[in-house]
Amino acid sequence: MDKMIENKSEKHHYTRSYRLLHWIMAGGFISLLVAGQQFNLDLTDSYKMAGLRYHSSIGVIILASVLGLLIKRFLLRHKRPVANMTLLKKFLAHAVQLSLYSIAILLPVSGLLTAYYSDTPTALFGTFDLSQFTSDPGMFKDWRQVHEWATFAAIALALSHAGAAMYHHLIVKDNVLTSMIDLDGIIKWIPFIKLPARKFINEK
Q1: What is the rounded average pLDDT for all residues in the chain?
Q2: What is the CATH number of the domain that holds 192?
Q3: 24 close to 57: Cβ distance less than 8 angstroms
Q4: Torsions phi, psi of 38, nearest 5?
Q5: What is residue 113's DSSP assignment?
Q6: Confidence class for position 7, pLDDT limits 50, 70, 90
Q7: Do 67 and 104 touch, CB atoms closer than 8 A?
Q8: H-helix or E-strand spanning residue 201
Q9: 147 CB contacts (<8 Å, ≥6 apart)?
């Protein structure tokens, strides 16, 4: 009986490690998107170096997370929930997911290369200075532009991804959203959620 419950859970939910990597990547991207706006301001050199240190370090964590997801999905071929969708919707969903994976690699890599060619010290995790080897204003400008365009693309793809998840949860009422987030587990830790809100969150 326990085995049947476990198999049913696997069928409708991603594994904990899969979800963990997914939300590390998502949370890191959101934090970088918000914090990255500071670089458009007139900052002191010390403040800019501190910002670059955290920005580049979180970028490496995002890169490691997406590589972990790619290994689990394409090399180890870990089981994933099977959504009941039309072929067109599956194609669009896979296209957005693969585009997000690509952007999640391009974004931190282009950022690291921008730091590499910059004349501003960027201490990765506060220890390793990426800009100690070379300084090339031309390459810095080119990679920074790539980084900015990748940021815009990531925003568009992330909004499409989130919008599709909410569409499936609120309109289609399937398990696409809940397969990646344990809403039941979350509301158990929030005792002040009233019954109507609890019903809305669990609505399928």
Answers
A1: 83
A2: 1.20.950.20
A3: no
A4: -65, -25
A5: H
A6: very low
A7: no
A8: helix 195-201
A9: 107, 110, 111, 114
